[in-house]
Fold this sequence. Notes:
Layout: H1 2-15, H2 33-45, H3 49-52, H4 59-82, H5 91-109, H6 111-133, E1 138-140, E2 146-148, H7 153-173, H8 189-199, H9 202-217, H10 223-244, H11 248-260, H12 266-279, H13 286-298, H14 308-337, H15 339-342, H16 346-360, H17 368-377
Helix pairs in contact: 1-2, 1-6, 4-5, 4-13, 4-14, 5-6, 5-17, 6-7, 6-8, 7-8, 7-9, 7-16, 9-10, 9-16, 12-14, 14-16, 16-17
Amino acid sequence: MEKIRLFVLYLYLFGLSIENWSPWGNQTSLxxxxxxxxxxxxxxxxxxxxxxxxVGKIKNLLFxxxxxxxWISFVSFFNASFKGYEYxxxxxxxxxxxxxxxxxxxxSRYYFLRxxxxxxxLINGIFISFLSYFQIGIDKxxxxxxxxxxxxxxxxxxxxxxxxxxxxxxxxxxxxxxxxKRYLLLFFIPFLLQTIAKTGSKGALISLSVSxxxxxxxxxxxxxxxxxxxxxxxxxxxxxxxxxxxNEVLAERWRDFVETGDTTGRAERxxxxxxxFLHNPIFGVGENGLATIAxxxxxxxxxxxxxxxxxxxxxxxxxxxVPFVIFLCRxxxxxxxxxxxxxxxxxLILFLIMLIFWFKAGGGLNSKLAWAYFALISYTxxxxxxxxxx
Length: 390
């Protein structure tokens, strides 16, 4: 049964970047394969509650996350009860935290799962890059941006960027002592780059640029090896950027961003969310409160500010923001303390990418992909956990 549970987990992880895809319905259907695998993962895990839902080793991460969920839900429920606002229970965020809980325990228990997680993300990125190249399951959206299988362009671009980073990690650091065949992975880089370009995702381009620069700067190599790698990295980055900007969609969006600071409407929503926080700094206004205010301001159904930090501040006030920041700081602290376990700084680069992703992601707090990465970043084997409270 345990092997079946882990196999279901692998299928769930593989599907995270395309979680909206369903061969039997639309992107809100309950028959989405990734949703089914996620539910099976949880259900099978219930067979051994004591082992799979251990709290002790991750309570310093789990409790702040649960508090953020509880408080925002409480304020929203209060609004529904006393102000007549519509209330929708955010089961998606709860499922994200639940999957983070389970995955954190499994990563700590099975030493091989960390490596398999990275391989699954890599395979998934290559898979979607081939779909993009051969024009399979693609959709065209605003400004002719490409998405895949009904999933957000930014998520597709983000996954492709991380897959490219993992390829460099495998080739350069070679911690698994793979022979020269690992250089064959270079063949997939153009496919990943063209996928990023076709999504037109400025966020993916920024994440890739910042992560690559940071990766080479903090690369754990002797200085004699590091300098040539940095030079090769700069040359490769210039060639890759030139290649991606041949795509008219990405080139136009990037030009508008550089020349005019265009954020495709995000700046106005950021300003509104921050203004809501300033007027309700302690308790916040809840999700339905922010939705009501945003609807009156923008006259549409979209209320998310496309910035997780501002979203938490506006909906939960300081009471939710403080534990939210504590959660992120503890993830970082745990990742930093585990550098010797990883024998690499890759997980710290992944943390940086997630911070950037949450800076501009619509609905980012409900992203199962982000919560899975946080579980990976904070990975520590049970026998190695020595975690000090902040």
